[in-house]
Amino acid sequence: MADSQEIEFFENLTNAIRDMQSVFPFGVGKATYLYFDKLLKQIHDPNKKIILANIAVCPEICYAMDLVPIQQELTTAFCAVIGTSVEHLDSAVEAGIPQGYLCNFQKVWIGAMISNKLPRPDILVYAPEPCDSMHANYQVIQNLYKIPAFGFDIPYWTHEESSPYYSDTISKYMGNQVKKMVSFLEKHTNSKLDPEKLKEAIEKSNIARQNILEILEFCKAVPSPLPSSVLTPFLLLLSCLLGSDEAIHLTKSVRDEVYSRFKNKQGHIALTYKKKTEKLRLLWLLIPIAFDLGISAWMERKYSCMVLMDILSIYLTPPIDMSSLESIYRDLGKAVLDYPMGRQYRGPIEYFLDDVLRICRDYKIDAAILGGHNCKNVFAVRKLIAETLIKEVGIKTLELEADSLDPRVNPRKNIKRTLGQFLDRVTEEKYGIEK
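and the corresponding structure tokens:
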């Protein structure tokens, strides 16, 4: 059970999210508040085991075992949204975590943890993807908390038979990894996984997964029915809801609203801004700016520009095969590999480029933005990415120096000026006129 200071952190976070529910339409804001409110109650319960996990770890296992999953990246992102991320980043740096070398998405958590502002989890479970920075940061978290930890062993190769990097051992290997995770949780929680409860959680998860795929299909429409600000927080939240009733309710609500707009050929910009229609469709190649959610609305309002997708929105995981327990474990393991960002960054550059090129074609993207996150994996190959997009699909890429969580790297005013200059050029090239 957490102490008063640790509880205060989550109370403040939950209250802030409650007060800004309307920022995330389609029920996403309300669902996020309800998740954190429920989490706050569970943290108070001494009989509940708290599992700290990252976005790639299958939450269905936790729900089937009556464990409480805290999704680390979701919590970190909302620290930036409510304006507390800088404080925690500074705490991490003061404690010796290098500035600029490790991913801020874990560094925020480490800073808050060092300051005793987070509830101490009982167990850590993580997949060390998409990058080595993730792996290093979770080792720091494990050592500071001094708690049992399970880390997936993420292979370089893929389970997709169409890929030149395919290996027929990967599906079985990842299924065995999930089994090891289950054994680890059973050992350290004194609970046993009931196969029937797992199947029940997977049934709920499959309904939600199918809804997600349909939502993404509807978003290919021109004009796009979904606001730029919805997709990433929606999918981040689902990374800790899959397997629950809440996942079904949320995905159905969003799916029904998007389908209604799709069926009636109603685009978000025309519905929201008078006398405007969608003009530009962007792909944000990294994580969007979390410390200022107004940037996407500003692009919609001033440039009639939609951000169709970002790296955390490239969701390709189909429903889980429930024909046997073996198939469930196998597909959950594949889902760990295929979670957005992890799928694209964990292996050769082709994993990233193939998905991005497909998105550009399927979603009729006009331009791309490479920025919003201090990620060495992608910045090391940014020139190759930009050249490939120009060569293969004729799309220009803006390299934007920024960090999703830290406004000091590049403040809002500078980001908007750079984006505006780029969007002016793209608009002029597409329509022959300035914006």
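(Above: one complete record from the training split.) The mean pLDDT is 92.
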